[in-house]
Amino acid sequence: MRDKNKLALSEIFGKTIFRIPDYQRGYAWQIMQLNDFWEDLINLDIKHKHYTGLLSLKEATNEEIEKIDENEKYLINQKHFNYYFIVDGQQRLTTSLILLEAIITLISSLPDNQNKNDKAIELEDGEPLSEIKKHYICYPAGNFSVVYLFGYAKNNPNTDYLEYKIFRKECSGSVEESFYTKNLQNAQTFYKDKIDGYYKQYGIEGILKLYNLLTNNFIFYIQYIDDDYDVCVAFETMNNRGKALSNLELLKNRLIYLTSLYKEQTFGENPAGNRSALRNSINKAWIEVYKQLGRNSSHLLSDDEFLRAHWIMYYTYSRKKGNDYKDFLLNKFSYRAIYENISETTEINSSDQEIIYPERMIDQTEEEYNYDKEKVIDNISKITPEDIKTYVESLQEMAQYWFYSYYPEVNTNLSEEEINSIKRLNYIGINYFRPLIAVAIKDNRSSSEEKLKFYKAIERFIFVNFRMAQYFSNYKSSEFYRITKDLYYKKTTIKKITEDLEYYTNDNLMDARTRFESKITRLFENGTGFYGWSGLKYFLYIYEEHLSKKKERKINWNNLQNKDSIEHILPQEYSKNPYWKKMYNNFNENQINSLQSSLGNFLVLSKPANSALKNYDYQTKKNKVYHEGSYSEIKVSTENPDWCAENIYKRGLELMNFMNNTYNLNIDEETKKKLLHLDFLKEKATTNGVSTNNQD
Predict the structure, then answer these.
(1) Which helix H or strand E contains 678, and what residues bound it?
(2) What is the pLDDT of residue 256?
(3) Which of 233, 344, 384, 547 has the fewest CB atoms within 10 Å around its CB?
(4) What is the mean pLDDT of residues 20-48?
(5) What angle do CA 487, 491, 494 make, to 5 degrees?
(6) pTM for the predicted model, two decimal places
(7) Contacts within 8 Å (CB) and 24+ apart, 459-462
(8) What letters, b where the CB count within 10 A reaches 16 and e where it falls short, cover 360-371?
(9) d(C-alpha 624, C-alpha 58), whole Å
């Protein structure tokens, strides 16, 4: 006997409307999950069934049906449709329909079908495409309207994208995109490419086979949840499978669950309306957050990184390894926080101690050095509806400023100088300062000039403490996380924070200079010199920016991510070219290596050099590349007829002076020369009886 709870896609659909409720996240599957689903389909024998997963459903109540669209009510009342909310399984069901739509689109686009309407296009069993769409995609609701049978609950912006972009509903305007719509688009593109490739290999017979497998052989196990079951709790528990919920998604579900637990009297007059308004505030906040996180479709911002940053701004930072912010928030917004009587507790406290790791690698993170062992203290305290509303409104507001910390150029309220300064912070490695930057962008008490000094003070702090001194990447992080919260609540000012930054930087300056000199010496000893310094690309970039003097930029930061964007003017394989061999025939291999690795020999290119050009003689490089390249290239080519050792030394001093002046490092002249590691030039000049004035 057939299990009535095990249904194929064709049996699940048919006189049923499915809606993804507001506590659910959007579409989250990535390439790995999409490919697994595809491989399950194409490897399935037509005689076998495939267990696709659980589909957990809750039937809408009469009260919920009263709030839906009139066309949906028409199908329920006149056509006897069912109306279900999807508690679990929406990712698989969405994927099934995206793949089904790709199959429908391919069949419609075949040469024999291009001039036919859907009623005239039939599958092998005589079923027209119009009936397939009516069964799975959209159903007529009278007055030339249709109801899309699968989608998101009312007022979710993902609904428009699903209908207009995936199901190809006619649209005369633009469709709002977000963090999640990018995933829908990626899935659509992925399956379109797969279906097109499958058709080329197996023809229409292969496509019809896939259609039958998808609709009849992919089996869902159906679970129906009763009205009195806590569906939010079920959702939170069930989503331990598949692609795990992000912490931000989990928190949204938790908050919506809490709105259902408050007693009626908590809301005072009109409790139903106020409860609904609170739930709407949560949904509105999450819609805006994901809109901002997905605002740049080519670089989706991490939702959990934003949630952690907002926790730092809004609550209390702790230096505990792992998801301490998640533990804090899920404790803070626990169902126990709704109770009338709860115990007094203490919030998290963080250690004031700082540890400096001068030899750490730049790309290592705080989590790799878990020296802070304090336990997250249970922080349950009473949470009112107003607390939730205030919190989610803060999340909603800060999302745009978080986006601006990555892309300041889209904020029309920032000056050009502020925009460039924030960009530079992203380039140098903004580190733990991003939450503070986001709050500073929002702060309306400070002038543009004060903010500009503030951004420059952060850049100098990062350059001195991390690029020169090589301190551990969380140096002073607790201090500035606390300051972030103080600035958010207007307990401090940007001017005061700037003073703190300058104090810490100046206090470490002597140590930073010493460590920098030792670091560069070790790099020369291992043969890389300045090429091995983590700050080289950034330093050459800001030098190029300095040379541009507000003219059109010839280099953007993305140029420098190419491995061939930094040029050794005296090439590493110099011996392959007679010009270089003759120019440097008086130097031994160790000396030539030092010349190649000295700061003055490095040049940022507007276009990455091909491997052959790298070893050309200087005249060829100068005439074929440098003369029309970056401002740095032009300066080198116009000021240096040849590229001799003395010119490497001279340019190195020029760059050291620029570094010294830009970051106010107070490096003395003798140390600048020592950092270049070209002392042998002075000795060689003295031995040959040549003046060394141009080196001193």
Answers:
(1) none
(2) 87
(3) 344
(4) 88
(5) 45
(6) 0.73
(7) 459/421, 459/424, 459/425, 459/428, 460/501, 460/502, 460/505, 460/663, 460/664, 461/501, 461/504, 461/505, 462/425, 462/428, 462/429, 462/430, 462/431, 462/433
(8) beeeeebeeeee
(9) 70
Reading the block at residue 223, the tokens are 């679970």
CA distance 279 to 124: 48
Q: What is the pLDDT of residue 609?
A: 64
Q: Is the pLDDT of residue 22 over 60?
A: yes
Output the six-digit token pair for 677: 């590691």
Whole-number average pLDDT of the chain:
85
pLDDT above 70 as % of the chain: 87
- Listed as own residue / partner, the contacts of 125-134 with beta carbons closer than 8 Å and 24 or more positions apart are 129/104, 132/104, 133/104
| CB distance 223 to 5 below 8 Å | yes
Model pLDDT for residues 410-443, shown as the tens digit of each residue: 999 999 999 999 999 999 999 899 999 999 999 9
Closest residue by Cα to residue 557 from 652, 683, 425, 416: 425
> Is residue 410 a contact partner of residue 285, using CB atoms and an 8 Å limit?
no
686: Cβ contacts below 8 Å, ≥ 6 apart: 692
Residue by residue, DSSP assigns 612-675 as HHHTS-HHHHHHHTGGGS-HHHHHHHHH-SS--HHHHHHHHHHHHHHHHHHTT----HHHHHHH
Q: Is residue 345's pLDDT more than 50? A: no
How many angstroms separate the CA atoms of 420 and 429, rounded? 14
Q: Could you give the CA distance from residue 514 to residue 521 in angstroms, rounded to a whole number?
A: 11
Nearest-angstrom CA–CA distance, 321 and 58: 38
CB 211 within 8 A of CB 232: no
Question: 3-state class of 317 per DSSP?
Answer: coil
Both tokens assigned to 106? 């391919």
**For residue 610, what is the DSSP state?**
P
662 vs 660: CA distance, rounded Å: 6
What whole-number percentage of the chain has pLDDT above 90? 53
Q: Give me 146's structure tokens.
A: 């249709």
| Residue in 596, 576, 591 with CA at minimum distance from that of residue 531 | 596
| Nearest-5° Cα angle at 576, 575 to 580 | 55
What residues does 150 pair with on adjacent strands?
A: 18
Could you tell me if 199 and 207 are in contact, meaning their C-beta atoms sit under 8 angstroms apart? yes
Q: Cα separation of 393 and 282, whole Å?
A: 8
**DSSP string of 135-194, one letter each residue:** HHTEEE-STT-EEESEEEPTT-THHHHIIIIIS----SS-----HHHHHHHHHHHHHHHH
Compute the distance between CA of residue 17 and CA of residue 2 in angstroms, rounded to an integer: 24
Token output for 655: 């760059």
**Could you give the C-alpha distances from 607 to 197, 556, 559, 601, in angstroms and in order?**
36, 11, 7, 17
Quickly tell me which residue has 């209390």 as its tokens. 316
Map residue 602 onto helix, strand or coil.
strand
Per-residue pLDDT reduced to its tens digit, 231-261: 555 555 555 445 677 889 889 888 988 888 8
Category of 383 on φ-ψ map: left (φ > 0), alpha (ψ -120 to 50) or beta: beta
pLDDT reading at 372 higher than 50: no
Please, which residues have CB within 8 angstroms of residue 680's CB and are 6 or more apart in sequence? 587, 591, 594
Q: Are strands 82-88 and 50-59 parallel, antiparallel or unpaired?
A: antiparallel
